[in-house]
Amino acid sequence: MLLDALIDLIPELNKAFLETIYMVAISLFVAVLAGLPLGILLFVTDCGLFLENTVVKSVLGFIVNMIRSIPFVILLVGLLPLTKLITGTTIGPTAASVSLSVAAVPFFARIVETSLREIEKGVIEAAVAVGATPWMIIKDVLLPEARPGIVHGITITTISLVGYSAMAGIVGGGGIGDLAIRFGYYRYDNTVMITTIVILICLVQIIQFVGDRIARLVDKR
Q: Signal sequence span per UniProt (predicted)?
């Protein structure tokens, strides 16, 4: 009986799994594309660094902290008008990717900033002393030195997005979370609920394993 139920569920599970991967991939791409330069800017404009700028640091820090302080469920609902404007709809994985991206950018930016702070100040001071330009310092010193930390940050962000994508099912965002809510919660189907939990656990374990391996490979220190 249980086996038959799982077999019948396979098409829905495949669709939900692909929707989850789709949402996470889009939002992770946006997070890295926007969060990496934002994290670098948060670091290099800090007090005592080569692009020190209190105003920029304060404004960016406030915006990042403000977005991060909003629970994702509230952010998801609050961004529905923006989602409608960008995608033309408020349901489905593409629509959910808007809120996921907004949540992921400041999250990843803070991780990048933290990774850069772990670099020894002497390395940066030496680069400044030999006359390196800010772009050269960022490209040739900061990013190579912080590479393992940034890879770990991408891993953590990806795992967080998997969890956030499950919450997107509350507003019909699709994915595994939507499947769990529609079948597991509303229909009291424990088979679906347990299956989706197992899938999410396996997915997170795979992401963590791959992320750790890549971080070790790029760590040349």
A: none
